[in-house]
Specification:
6 copies of one chain form a homohexamer.
Chain A: E1 8-13, E2 17-21, E3 33-39, H1 41-51, E4 56-59, E5 61-63, H2 66-77, E6 86-88, E7 94-98, E8 106-111, E9 133-139, H3 142-145, H4 147-162, E10 167-170, H5 180-191, E11 196-200, H6 201-208, H7 214-220, E12 225-229, E13 235-238, E14 243-246, H8 259-272, H9 277-292, H10 303-312, E15 317-318
Parallel strand pairs in A: 1-4, 1-9, 2-7, 5-6, 9-10, 10-11, 11-12
Antiparallel strand pairs in A: 2-3, 7-8, 12-13, 13-14
Helix pairs in contact in A: 1-8, 8-9, 9-10
Chain lengths: 319, 319, 319, 319, 319, 319
């Protein structure tokens, strides 16, 4: 490969787990079977981007057993390159999701401690690949998993900067992994090196105060483009010059999990295609809306239907 | 059978397919199983009429294999006479339905080309039966399937006229089968011989212009009673004397496909029972509303529950 | 056991059946499988109370075969003591539920005649247990099942009074079992001996007139605390001194059946915990709301989530 | 209908039930769902005959509710005429089947007492139909259900005799319904009027002694052709002149229930087609063997595959 | 409780896990769902004993979340007392089972490291209960889980000896948990204190040499009754006086896992009932044979069917 | 890519279909759902080879709709490169499989006429890729699909010869596609250019006479290595010098379809690894045996378990 040849549009890395959930509205206490889905913030983004036509690689550690191979097969199925995965004899992290119905909340229980992915180390990966990538995507989950995961994330950011590869960073605050104070320090370090930072407005308020806005964060994070998502209310962004905003789509929700990752994928796809920030927000909203209509973390979308939704809006039946 | 003995209340003919759909909101791209339902506009009408107590015969061509026999068995199960079906060694038409959730549309993919039904010819059937029927029901789908299907539809209309058997004709425009211009010529020929013509108001506007109304169509089609359906908004009709209208029912929709056929069945049942046109529209709306609460093309209704809905309106639980 | 030692917080008795329902919105006419749930008003209350941490015993007659053992196993699974059940060689009552979608009603068909439970007699049980209980719960269904069931219910009330054990009585009027007039006589006898009487406001109006209110019933039933439930509109109560009221929760309903029993359990749990009547109504509403989000008659709840709902209200996702 | 016109090749009557069984090897004690099949000795025979191309009518009483309509729909699906069924407001008999695996036996639990079918009376049916039938088929189950069922069976035999319609009678001894002594008296009465009597050799030995053979029974039953079935070992028969015998097929059994009824259908089909007794036994064995490869009481066979099995024997795959 | 009152027939303790297996012969690499069963050697024994009518308590540590509560509910369902379980905030051990078909082996993957049960400590339990038990059952799995588990097992043995409660010990060698040498030392310590020691002959040969027999082990373990199981070939035993042997049953195996535990339960049940050792082996074989016909680790048996199998042998159908 | 760089170990091309089969032993006539599997002789080989660690590309035409994308996703999931597939707007070929049980045969019904794959043409593919491949695998199915498919197969063979890439050719005779005479002419043309020819001994006898053996075929096909498969009886081969033979494995068959393709993959994998022909036959037998234990056409194998089976033989459970 010549030194500046592009092999991947996007490289990302992180932990991906089995998501085990009782069918329908059944409870874990009494269930007889579990639906198996594959979920991880970064791999969700990777899959949606690959389905939108981008060349995407995902790096992680996986155990070389049935569950680990299942995760790799799922990513391959959707077109993501998993050749950089590091295989070991550990365990796959899992999480249980019990779907509620208002007023009963959907509940998530993690069983991810000591997973193979939590043992990710910088030396597991071939960093020379980064200079053949157009973009690096990271989230705030990975650095919270373990010290070696934090080191791996740091290394990724520094390699990208060294190779002039833009970095997107989604805060993805997880209260079960660390405290806001612990998270904030790491966020400042990593988001401060990023080109685009994406965060749920809800998390931003929790961590930086109810009055914190995109302008504040833009400054805090050394001029990064700041994108704030507001679930059904769409998204806003500030790039240092203009405030842009795009409303969300009315959705009859089937499964909420993974919608934020789908947003990221839509946003990054549009940015990689050279679209302006406002249109990228609309792409993010459209991909997120489609994901919400599907069971599982993964946005099983096609580029044509995203474009159709953006152009024509919703329709009831196509025949 | 004596020459004027009535054997069937309604005779109908057309193509019926296997409808294959992934369970729940699953996508075709990733599904591991398909739910099998049976659907065809005319057989949907036939089944609902049979369940409402009418003697109904359905004619078609079916392949003499598992899928073909499945279709015949399904019609028999609901009480439709399939003894006039012509069996061959062809293939059963199929269509795939992928259920969406707003803003993701439900998508229909047809795989019906070269089906056994598309080879229907006038000589496949014993036309002397028509004079022992009280009514003939046809749709605008059959003549679009092939030249021999068009010939068969024409023959049916002419035999009915010759025997003084009233004919209902539901336009059922299918954009994947022909253009509005192709369709319009055939519609004029067939609807012009019909006693009752049913059309979706949406299709009428597409084909005859946004201002076209029931009066225009009544005239265009030689005095046929014209019934226009408006989905959730109910139906209107004009019989040359009076404009009648009936509002639809509020429905929590389970599956939209087949609602128009259910409407036809309710309408025809009421007309055959000698009810006035306005009440026939209400019957059509009630049967359509019940169909919308069920998975599959078929209205698995009972006459008593239609009458209960018409008399008492909706109720949450009966125990 | 010393003479005043408490063994059970609550004792209850009644009929429990297999509830057989086609999956989804499928109809009994065409279904290929039936979901098996266990349902009975008193055992629903018993299970929810046991899950909330109370020691609960349930008495009944069950056939010593697969279906009968299934019922006992289900109660045991949720922590209810079934050691007092009387086993015979009869049949388990069943009922079929066909889930509708508006405007199609959910339909319940009973097949409970001549069930083992309908043969319950006073001599089937060891009445000395009652004085080791803190509470007795009965419903108006049991006395409607048979003469011997009526005798058993009477005996229970009299034993409780003799042992100074408070009694709750839920009218639970079932039109398929008896007429309002038949029911009213029995209600007066039994509710007149109860400490707390619970009734659906709808049933009260049917039986005692549209103007009948909690004050009237309090007087009619010799000073019992009267609790009237209003489905989504919550509940009201009168204890001879104060009128209390608690609004219901907005719920996205999954399955309605059993919500009234869940209300009873929440109410009784709070009363047994010494909470005031108003708070007991709120407990009843919370448990009922959670039950409505689950398939089946049974409220598969945990005390912590009831308390969370009462304290924090509804939330979409917990992770 | 002219007085000697044939409307049905075979008329039969009896009770048909819902057969409810846990999936796979699951037990009733712990199951969460039940597979629904339809089973009744006479309707099993009727269905297999209809599938083999005969015109068949089945008479019974059914409740006019979901389960009852389900039974009628299933018979119609397979081509059996159910227009002679008498509808009431009773209950459908059910039976539970728990599939074992050696050494655990498959277990059958009946819940059929007081079913609609058990209330069958002679006056429920239009006996004039019998003279338009080529054959009447009865079993020894119906007369065991109730006094009125016995009367109905008697009436059927007498009407057939009066109309010179041959009668087949399958003993089908059921130990849960009556004792051998009770059964024997009725068998002698009914089999003594039959043209063909079919019995499991096992039952014959139980009732008439280990040494009883087809010749003895031929004499006992006034010269009826006697057919004795021996499960996997095939069948033997004696018609007063010749002893014939046909070996069974080696089968990998999927579900045993209904194999005897399938044998009856094969036998009767061949006899109606004018085949000699030995070939009729072979037809019986072939249809029974095919039924054993299917879940459920019903032989979902096609005439072509019966003929293929008879002509070519077993094959592993056809493509 | 008076000091010598018996509360439980059998007390046991150990780890119980969720067993997650793809349906049918599906592989973990590609599965979309997992069947959930509950399995643990000691709880399997506990459940089978409870189903045979014994009063049984099971002690362990479980996480207070859905999976942990599911395990406790399953034991309660089958009649086991779980009131002595110690609840924490840990994780439930799980294991994956992928069912093969010869020549493809069934494969088991454990994910049990750091489970709640592995943190069991002597101080988690109220040891005064032991003197109210008739029997203590332990296995060689628990001491292999962790140092604190080993301490807990030791404590149990010592408490039982102090209270003169007989102890059964099943070696249950697990090669994934420790080496033969590690295991042997612990076995000698624990089996040397036991009344009855059960082992697979296969394991005995692996650990003590191909020539080791029951007499050698009887001596090695201070006079314990030694029972050796040989899968389909039944079991042998030596009590210091007599060699007894009982052949296994021919079985059409549905699921092998848990058969050894079922054997233990049959054996212990018979010994507790005062039956001689030879008959106890036969009980062990019968319960094991029935378990082999069921999916899952658990023997969902009834005492009557065990007795029927012992008395009558296998039968194909009971109706 | 430099001119002699190897990109793929194996290239193959052909038609892949959706295989739709009723669950269990259900029949097409009555089924309510279909299991979806993906099957095509060449893609089955490609998948098994990729799972064994080879770099494999598969070429075909697929419709750009849900079913077509499903096929591509399945191949990608198992590691096959589908970037050379030509997409169109046609239909995906399907076939129905109804699983029998002896004596009822498994039945296959094809609905593949006019599929996208049948329109494959030489100009759909970039033939320059062949010189970067180590091996080309073809079957006798593709040339039977259409004239353009025959042309494509011919072109592939000629390109491979020109690039000195060895070719394997599996006759795979399909009686529903052409007659033996039609097939034989094409076989001679293509097999005559192949390095390795694989055929079922059964087909060879059908086409070339009962006495035809591997030596005859070796000569007929210009010195190709001839491999004859005999199902359970293993395989034999002749390479012009030595006759080699390898016995099959005893298998408890779950699904027969695809076993021949699995054999091919095992054989080719071993040959590519430089193993001698006899060992390659053993590899073929081992992969075929594992495939037979799985539902579906695809051998979801791992290299380690093939090696384990070859080295250790069958084992019942691994834990």
């Amino acid at each position: 490969m010549s030194s500046n040849e592009i092999k991947y549009d996007v490289l990302t890395l992180g932990e991906t787990m089995w998501r085990l959930s009782p069918p329908g509205r059944e409870r874990l206490d009494t269930t007889r079977s579990l639906d198996v889905n594959v979920g991880g913030s970064e791999s969700n983004v990777a899959i949606a981007l690959a389905r939108l036509g981008k060349r995407v690689a995902w790096w992680s550690r996986l155990p070389d057993n049935g569950p680990g191979r299942h995760v790799a097969a799922t990513l391959r199925m959707h077109g993501v390159d998993v050749s950089g995965v590091c295989w070991d004899n550990g365990r796959l992290g899992t999480y249980f999701v019990e779907f509620g119905s208002p007023p009963r909340p959907t509940q998530v229980i993690y069983d991810r401690a000591n997973s193979s992915a939590s043992h990710m180390r910088p030396e597991d990966f071939d960093w020379s690949v980064i200079r053949h990538c157009r973009w690096l995507h990271l989230t705030g989950i990975t650095p919270a998993l373990s010290a070696s995961c934090l080191e791996t994330t740091r290394r990724a950011v520094h390699e990208a900067r060294a190779a002039n590869v833009p970095v997107s960073f989604d805060l993805n605050y997880r209260a079960k992994l660390w405290t806001p104070a612990q998270a904030a320090a790491v966020y400042d370090e990593l988001a401060g090196c990023a080109t685009v930072v994406i965060a749920a407005e809800r998390d931003v308020r929790l961590m930086y105060g109810a009055n914190c806005n995109a302008h504040d964060l833009h400054e805090r994070w050394n001029g990064a483009v700041v994108v704030l998502t507001r679930s059904a209310d769409g998204a806003i962004a500030y790039d240092g010059k203009t405030d842009v905003e795009a409303p969300g789509y009315p959705v009859q929700v089937v499964d909420r999990v993974g919608a934020g990752d789908a947003f990221d994928a839509g946003l990054l796809c549009a940015l990689l295609d050279g679209k302006p920030l406002g249109e990228a927000l609309r792409w993010g909203n459209a991909v997120a809306a489609l994901k919400l209509t599907m069971q599982g973390d993964i946005a099983v979308i096609h580029r044509a239907e995203v474009e159709h939704l953006l152009a024509e809006g919703s329709s009831a039946i196509q025949r």
